[in-house]
Amino acid sequence: MSTATATLPHTAALARLGHALSDPTRAGVLLALREAPAYPSDLANALGVSRQVMTNQLACLRGCGLVEAIPDGRRVWYRLSDSHLAPSLDELMKVVLYIEPGCCDGEGCSCP
Predict the structure, then answer these.
(1) pLDDT on residue 25
(2) Residues in domain HTH arsR-type (predicted)?
(3) Is 89 inside any structural domain?
(4) Looking at residue 52, which CATH number applies to its domain?
(5) Of 15, 25, 58, 77, which has the maximum CB count within 10 A?
(6) What is the model's pTM?
(7) 3 within some domain
């Protein structure tokens, strides 16, 4: 797509994605969910944040249209809202590694 065909809705959608990725916790959630759906408590533990922080970040990601909540009895688990997101995040990580090759030390790294 050329810049001449970019529309205001395209720009707004891209800005929402940028907002979602601008927070390390939200970025971590998206990277975790590209691997598998998860419960908020598991995500909070994995990312080292409180459950309240995780609840707030998941609400933001839902508002951006990137994740969806799936009821499971009395609990709710989360997954990426579209099948295109996981491969897109993988591609974005490749760009990040190109720009900053030393960002992953190889231990516990979820880079592609």
Answers:
(1) 96
(2) 6-100
(3) yes
(4) 1.10.10.10
(5) 58
(6) 0.81
(7) no
Number of domains in the chain: 1
Write the single-letter amino acid at 63.
G
**Dihedral sign from CA coordinates of 83, 87, 93, 95:** negative
Q: Measured between alpha carbons, how far is 47 from 19 in angstroms, rounded to an integer?
A: 19
pLDDT digits (tens, 9 = 90+) for 19-45: 999 999 999 999 999 999 999 999 999
Write the CA distances from 51 to 7, 17, 43, 48, 91, integer angstroms: 38, 23, 9, 9, 29
Q: Which domain holds residue 54?
A: 12-103
How far apart are the C-alpha atoms of 33 and 35, rounded to whole Å? 5
Give the whole-angstrom CA distance, residue 80 versus residue 59: 13
Successive 10-residue mean pLDDT values, the chain, 112 residues: 67 88 95 96 97 97 95 96 94 87 60 49
CA distance 64 to 73: 25
Residues 17, 92 contacting (CB under 8 angstroms): no
The span from the CA of 72 to the CA of 49, in Å, is 23
